[in-house]
TrEMBL record:
Lineage, uppermost ranks: Eukaryota, Amoebozoa, Evosea, Archamoebae, Mastigamoebida
Ranges for domain Methyltransferase: 41-116
Protein name (record): Methyltransferase domain-containing protein
Gene3D superfamilies: Vaccinia Virus protein VP39
The UniProt record lists the keyword Transport: no
Species per Swiss-Prot/TrEMBL record: Entamoeba dispar (strain ATCC PRA-260 / SAW760)
Amino acid sequence: MDNDWMPYANEPEPPQGQLIPFITSPPQLCEEVIKLLGVTEKDKIIDVGCGDGRIVISAVESTHCKGVGIDINQDLINGCIKEMNEKNLNNSLHFQVDDFSRPDFDFYQCDCVCFYFVPRIIKMMKPKILEYLRADHSRRCVSIRFPIKNIIPTKVNEAMKLYYYDWQSKEGKYGTNEDDCLLPAF
Ligand SMILES: C[S@@+](CC[C@H](N)C(=O)[O-])C[C@H]1O[C@@H](n2cnc3c(N)ncnc32)[C@H](O)[C@@H]1O
């Protein structure tokens, strides 16, 4: 996992507005995200900062759900669209350049949300994430690699560092106090 975390250090000049580097989740982790979220064919999943789109493509292929991938990086979105077309998944998937930090970002009204943010960005997005969850448990999200500070996840895959949140996730201390300095600036 740590080896997968590091290659971004070689990332060329990031696009303006890019708040997190491009790092891919390994295939096994993608499968686990989908499993933890309990994605079914009735769901719509969004990967916020989708990179090469692997999580939502995999979710659509394995569960026949709908999927949305947004990323600030036009080149990455072009690659996602190419793969979507090659796999004939354009009826189930939507990829778009977008900036999740815009004030009215609403997770495209999806049921399932996943993101691979760094702690500083999780902190920034925390109010939006908590506002997005619903009392009927219809909405849930998984944070990859870093937990949301001061919210106790409803489910955890500690080995893979996946943190699941829904309406039941309560305020409180969880885990270690990992902070921004874990990641070198880019
Ligand atoms: C750590 S990567 C995760 C990629 C993918 N979700 C995965 O797990 O394989 C984070 C992604 O967020 C994107 N990103 C960074 N800042 C963004 C922003 N402001 N709006 C949308 N996407 C952004 C990056 O381009 C990058 O692809």
